[in-house]
Amino acid sequence: MSDTAPIRLAPAAADDSVELERAELYGLLAALWLAPPDEALLRQFGVAVTQAPQQGGPLEAAWEALVAAMRATTADAAAAEHEALFHGVGKPEVFLYGSYYLTGFLNEKPLAQLRDDLAALGLTRDTDRGETEDHVAYVFEVMRYLIAGDGAGDDPTVHNLEQQRRFFRAHVQPWVGALCDAVQAHPRAEVWRSVAAFTRSFVEVETQGFDLLEA
């Protein structure tokens, strides 16, 4: 599984595939939660479309705020904020792991369940990464992979809406909102307050989409 999807910093145009747009947004969010934006990514935000093609859409305001926050920061400032919120010495200010929000502890049963589900999909953790599989960036990257795959050899029994729905319901929807709450409430959050707001809006849209699929 690739580290991140190619990132195009604009909501997809009306004639673009909805699935491509979803995959790109999952890839973008995976990148932003995993590490602070570098100069290249900030330059992309500098020329990003600031308005969604559908005025009044559910992601419009959150996207505009995210673009504005990225344009107002620097790579050094974003790196310092990411370090202060999610790393630092000892216990981080904000945890980024599903097990913590589901049980109050790290490396608990939800992580084991996630690993079982990943194995069933033929996925394993990149051993070069220090984060466990329940890191928010990892589960977003899995969603990107289930939508877009990695190439011509992708298995249609893995890359389909039903697998996306199952993974989202089990490993994204139950806890990502709590992560967003924690970030948005933190007094030191500036850039990631906007990242959290956009993440919340996007997860809400995805939830509504899967609700319709089940109706």
From TrEMBL:
Coiled-coil residue spans: none
Keywords: Chaperone
InterPro entries, per database record: DMSO/NO3_reduct_chaperone (IPR020945), TorD-like_sf (IPR036411), TorD/DmsD_chaperones (IPR050289)
Name of a matching Pfam family: Nitrate_red_del
Name this protein carries in UniProt: Molecular chaperone
Organism of provenance: Rubrivivax albus
Organism lineage: Bacteria, Pseudomonadati, Pseudomonadota, Betaproteobacteria, Burkholderiales
